[in-house]
Amino acid sequence: QVQLVESGGGLVQSGGSLRLSCAASGYTFSSYAMRWYRQVPGKERELVATISSTGAITNYAESVKGRFTISRDNAKNTVYLQMNSLKPEDTAVYYCRVDRYTIIYWGQGTQVTVSS
């Protein structure tokens, strides 16, 4: 079955960096776009970044443009989110997501906390 497992979250000071990973299994990873979302308590999940199946096309939320970079390694079935110049408002649980046919799959999330 489809599994998405995020890792790489943690506590970092404002201005610091983290790299999140999402390891996928149970489907043909290279055939599907991937997305990173984030969520803070009491708010809706927010789309952060999207990458096409080949990695050729990426899109970002305005709030992270120029600071975050999404990438993927189809040989390793893994998508990454490099986060630089982190701000306290980036504090959230980060999730990866794949839409396969009509079904949406989410990972369990990884907590990112940015201290001021």
In terms of topology, how is this protein built?
Elements: E1 3-7, E2 10-13, E3 18-25, E4 34-39, E5 46-51, E6 58-60, E7 68-73, E8 78-83, E9 92-100, E10 103-106, E11 110-115
Parallel strand pairs: 2-11
Antiparallel strand pairs: 1-3, 3-8, 4-5, 4-9, 5-6, 7-8, 9-10, 9-11
Kindly state the number of beta strands. Answer: 11
Alpha carbon gap, first and last residue: 40 Å
- Give the oligomeric state of the chains in this entry, treating copies of one chain as homo and distinct chains as hetero: single chain
Radius of gyration: 13 Å
**What is the mean predicted local confidence, pLDDT?**
97
Order of helices and strands: EEEEEEEEEEE
Q: What share of the residues lie within helices?
A: under 10%
The biggest beta sheet reads: 7 strands, mixed
Description:
- With 116 residues, the chain is mainly β.
- Helices cover 0% and strands 54% of the residues.
- The protein contains no helices and eleven strands.
- Strands 2, 4, 5, 6, 9, 10 and 11 form a seven-stranded mixed β-sheet that branches.
- Strand 9 and strand 10 form a beta hairpin.
- The radius of gyration is 13 Å and the shape is globular.
- The termini are far apart.
List keywords for this structure.
mainly beta
